Amino acid sequence: MGGPPDGSPSGAALRVRGLVKRYGARTAVDGLDLDVAAGSVTALLGPNGAGKTSTVECCLGLRRPDGGSVEVLGADVLRAAADPDHRAAVGAMLQDGGLPTSARPLRLLRHLARLHAHPRDVDVLAERLGLPAFARTSVRRLSGGQRQRLALAAALVGRPRLLFLDEPTAGLDPAARLVVWDLVREAVAEGAGVLLTTHDLDEAERLAQHVVIVDGGRALATGAPGVLTARSTASLRFTAGPGLDLGPLRRALPEDVVVSEAAPGSYVVSGDVDPQVVAGVTSWCAQRGVMPDALSVGRPSLEEVFLDLTGRSLR
């Protein structure tokens, strides 16, 4: 195959505008805008059923959008999907894997490498992901974590210009997770644009330069992780015995300050947290003989911003 095609003049590896996808009467994606710049990671975050999978499938040409536009490396997605050079420039790691179940990992990886003009060194990539340990095992007999590592290798081996990663570290142990993160960063350093979907908000915060939080098929917030967390008010956090009566504390603090027990024994005071609020909390604890452990004041994490926007109840 020839070399990968050039990206769009704007430097966007992926450009989505007003994307709509419906399934009968249900609208899964409702006017979504999304960009993935070359040499960067965009994290697409949302609860189950938020429209992430439908968005990715439309961006890969696996489903036809019902509205809007999708440009992959500067070309309309449906035309790009029919062009071998464009297909060679796009890598994808999806949850269902899409790997031939009778294949053996290293043979599969070498076969995929031969389909690309400038593939990665198969042996080096396989060694980093620990594939030789199960090289003689067919895909159908691999564990979930082994399939994850093989699927990532298959997505990376052709040095794609645009990479789709759907829950790339799900089911992996901490050591394997770090290897995956390093490989993603290396792909980005080589100029690849990456669209990452993950439920691991720490992963998104570590890898992504841009975040899009979606729910109901719509974008609720977009921006760099630091920008999204900076938009939220500071909070005070501490741990103590579960089930404390927070009524007196709420009455002792200004009306615009919210006090909650986020999880049993984990307390959050959010709003305009100034020195007087901190003093009020510590005084309330002292009056009740409560020792506030791990007391800290700071901006919320990306996970807390995500939960505030999408809700804390299970779907």
UniProtKB/TrEMBL annotation:
Main location, first listed in the record: membrane
GO cellular component assignments: plasma membrane
Keywords, in A-Z order: Antibiotic resistance, ATP-binding, Nucleotide-binding, Transport
InterPro entries per UniProt: AAA+_ATPase (IPR003593), ABC_transporter-like_ATP-bd (IPR003439), ABC_transporter-like_CS (IPR017871), ABC_transporter_ATP-binding (IPR050763), P-loop_NTPase (IPR027417)
Lineage: superkingdom: Bacteria
Biological processes annotated in GO: response to antibiotic
Localization, UniProt: Cell membrane
Family annotation (SMART domains): AAA (SM00382)
ABC transporter domain boundaries: 14-241
UniProt-recorded Gene Ontology molecular function terms: ATP binding; ATP hydrolysis activity
CDD domains: ABC_DR_subfamily_A
Topological relation to the membrane, as annotated: Peripheral membrane protein
Family annotation (Pfam families): ABC_tran (PF00005)
PANTHER family: ABC TRANSPORTER ATP-BINDING PROTEIN (PTHR42711)
Name of the protein this chain belongs to: ABC transporter ATP-binding protein
Source species of the chain: Pseudokineococcus marinus
